[in-house]
Design goal:
Helices cover about 40% and strands about 15% of the residues. It has about 700 residues and is an alpha/beta fold. Helix 3 runs parallel beside helix 10. The longest helix is centred in the N-terminal third of the chain and has 26 residues. The chain is elongated, with a radius of gyration of 29 Å.
Length: about 700
């Protein structure tokens, strides 16, 4: 590890005249595009503007060093000059500004300066600060997995490619920055981190953000991390530093971090006014370092260019931007209904008959538990597709491979992944740090490059650090990039209560938090057989899936089944009528299914009431057609679920029934769920809080009597 600050380099010794003039042109072009967007915003012809002003020098240098369509890029919103240098055109940038249908960044779906370009390997950028960091690490990790998994014959890697990811100084305060550095250093991944330090995160200065005011000083002890510090307003010095950093990554020595000191001569965005917090003297000092002013003068002073040559470049830039603006403003806007496209894969439909082999299981062996059939499915799928990688906390048998001869192996807290590492190797089954955002963020990067991550979040109760990645990144990738990128990862997570002792932090439910997210498939099987078939569909589909595995159901004897074979699939959006009836309908899922069946049997035997019980199995998409068909027969419905009663998943079903099936109802829609509390530790508290058989039976009696 080394930390160096580099003085101004002599231009002629590093780059040719043509190179230097082109860097100058790109810097001026980037600034002129910012100024044009500001003008268009003030004319109400575009709707938002955020500039890269002051960052142009280091970014133009980075674009010269790195390789478009070869390396991979996770930029942030200041990176206009980088994207121009890589090959994005001014017209493409202004198409984004006006929200045009032909915008290659997002098809008009994202704000300007949210870069994305499939042909250049610029991966779709989102607005949250720093969420791209872990994805970049996963993208670099894809090189590692492809290189080491021998069974993958078609390896879409170059061998010396690197992954560029950039952030501002404020983003170094995010926990995901440190998680990304930790994993990149630990795995010696070829990630080039560029910190563009303009000393402000909107209005918050760097000394408030960062202990000691220098992030490069803080990270110096990460092993195998090359740390370089440079004047980011000097494109030649920046070029020299970035060449060294890139070569370090390309030679697989580890990651590199370049700490570039830049300026921000404009406000954070047009929604901000820096005059409110930056005194005049500070703004004047920054102006003295403005690379679009100093570098042309430097080229003239060093005899590299004449004033006439610089002036000609300025005129060419002005003309190019004016033409690009005219083209962008004349480009059609997206058709309104196009908003419905690319929420999910347009090519692979997991609700289709292609995924329905449920009626033809090839049973073998004795009935076994949900844990065993989930494990069997993973083994079948990993044998079928060498691109599948499994990771998470404790999922491996033993991280220290030398211990495998002496120990039985962990294989997950609940043993779902037991034996996978032994069978498929440590390159495909491995443990992660105890960091849920790290797991999901890396999975997104891996999936973006064609691998199939099946990751585990150990407990639903601890999924919340990953929610940012799940909601803002995983679920949105395809839609926000207008189908240019996708991340079809599977996130397995244990779920629910009825544990006797689970308490607040090992009994949580909350499927509704995730079913409310467009772009994310959510399933929750109640039997071993369904778990096997639904997991296989999750792995083979082309959308991100949240796979809820109810802990209480893992080893129940009543839901056992024989192994249905390696091609058994249940399509998403297909509920199952687990008991037919004529007097009322119970709609439920998960651990409440068995309780509903017991209550229905009790009602039939004691009261002569015939209840139909529907197991939803798939929560998003929802099979509402099966619910509606049942209601046409019974005219009464009870929605039962384990979430808290208020605002839970069942509330949406109840509302949809009232909206679309009112004509068939002979009684109000009734709900049974948990109390609006958390789950308690003491058995008496847990039993009172969670819906029990007697609660269901009583509600069914009341519903029938209405």
């Amino acid at each position: 590890m080394a930390t160096r600050t580099h003085p101004r380099a002599k231009a002629a010794k590093v780059l040719s005249k043509a190179d230097l003039l082109d860097i100058c042109r790109l810097m001026l072009l980037s600034r002129r595009l910012d100024d044009k967007e500001i003008q268009l915003k003030r004319q109400n012809k575009i709707f938002f503007q955020i500039s890269g002003a002051g960052h142009e020098a280091v970014l133009a240098a980075a674009g010269r060093v790195l390789r478009p369509a070869y390396d991979w890029f996770y930029p942030y919103y200041r990176d206009r000059a980088l994207c121009l240098t890589l090959g994005m055109t001014p017209t493409e940038m202004l198409l984004s500004a006006v929200g045009a249908a032909e915008d290659p960044n997002s098809g008009g779906r994202q704000m300007p300066s949210h870069w994305g370009h499939k042909a250049l390997n610029i991966v779709s950028q989102s607005s949250p600060t720093g969420t791209q960091l872990l994805q970049a690490v996963g993208c670099a990790e894809a090189w590692l997995r492809y290189a080491r998994i021998a069974d993958i014959t078609d390896k879409p890697i170059q061998g010396d490619e690197l992954v560029y990811v950039s952030i501002g100084d404020g983003t170094t305060s995010e926990g995901e920055f440190w998680e990304a550095l930790n994993t990149a250093s630990n795995l010696k991944l070829p990630v080039l981190f560029l910190v563009e330090d303009n000393k402000y995160a909107i209005s918050v200065p760097v000394e408030v953000q960062t202990a000691g005011g220098s992030v490069s000083k803080l990270v110096r002890n990460f092993p195998d991390l090359l740390v370089e510090e440079v004047d980011g307003c000097d494109p030649v010095a920046s070029y020299e530093v970035l060449v060294r950093a890139a070569e370090y990554c390309r030679h697989r020595k580890g990651p590199a971090l370049v700490h570039a000191h830049v300026i921000r001569p404009y406000s954070h965005s047009l929604s901000d006014d820096e005059v409110l917090y930056k005194p005049p003297r500070e703004r004047e000092e920054e102006a003295k370092r403005d690379c679009t002013l100093t570098f042309p003068k430097r080229l003239i002073a060093d005899g590299v260019a004449t004033e006439a040559e610089i002036e000609q470049i300025r005129r060419q830039v002005e003309e190019e931007v004016d033409v690009a603006a005219d083209m962008a403003l004349a480009s059609p806007q997206p058709q309104p209904e196009s908003a419905l496209r690319y929420v999910y894969s347009p090519d692979v439909d997991p609700t289709s008959e292609q995924f329905d082999t449920e009626d033809d299981p090839q049973f073998a062996g004795d009935p076994t538990t949900m844990v065993d059939l989930l494990n069997a499915c993973l083994k079948d799928e990993m044998a079928r597709d060498p691109r599948i990688v499994v990771f998470g906390e404790d999922v491996a048998d033993a991280s220290r491979e030398q211990n495998l001869k002496e120990v039985k192996g962990k294989g997950g807290v609940f043993k779902v992944t037991w034996g996978l590492q032994r069978q498929f190797g440590s390159e495909r089954v491995y443990n992660s740090p105890l960091a849920e955002a790290n797991i999901v963020g890396r999975a997104i990067g891996l999936a973006t490059r064609g691998l199939k991550p099946v990751v585990e979040i150990q407990f639903f109760d601890y999924i919340w650090p990953a929610y940012h990645q799940l909601r803002n990144e995983l679920a949105t990738m395809r839609w926000r990039s207008s189908n240019a990128f996708s991340a079809p990862a599977v996130v397995r997570v244990t779920y629910g209560g009825y544990l006797k002792g689970g308490a607040l932090y090992h009994s949580q439910t909350g499927a509704v938090v995730f079913t409310a997210i467009p772009g994310l498939r959510v399933v929750c099987p109640s039997t071993a057989l369904d778990a096997n078939g639904l997991l296989r569909t999750a792995v083979r589909c082309d959308d991100p899936v949240l796979f809820l595995e109810h802990k209480h159901l893992y080893r129940q004897t009543y839901n056992k089944a024989p192994n249905p074979g390696p091609n058994f699939m249940i399509p998403f959006g297909k509920a199952k009528v687990v008991k037919e009836g004529k007097d009322l309908t119970v709609v439920t899922y998960g651990a409440v299914v068995q309780r509903a069946l017991v209550a229905a049997k009790e009602l039939e035997e004691k009261d002569g009431v015939s209840s139909e019980v529907i197991d939803l199995r798939s929560l998003s998409p929802l099979d509402f057609a099966t619910i509606a068909a049942s209601l046409q027969k019974t005219s009464r419905v009870l929605v039962a679920y384990e979430d808290a009663l208020s605002w839970g998943y069942g509330a949406e079903i109840a509302a949809k029934i009232a909206d679309e099936c009112f004509a068939w109802l002979d009684a109000p829609v009734k709900r049974v769920a948990s109390t609006d509390t958390f789950v308690g530790y003491a058995p008496a508290l847990e039993d009172f809080i969670l819906p029990q058989v007697e609660d269901l039976a009583q509600a069914m009696r009341e519903l029938h009597a209405f």
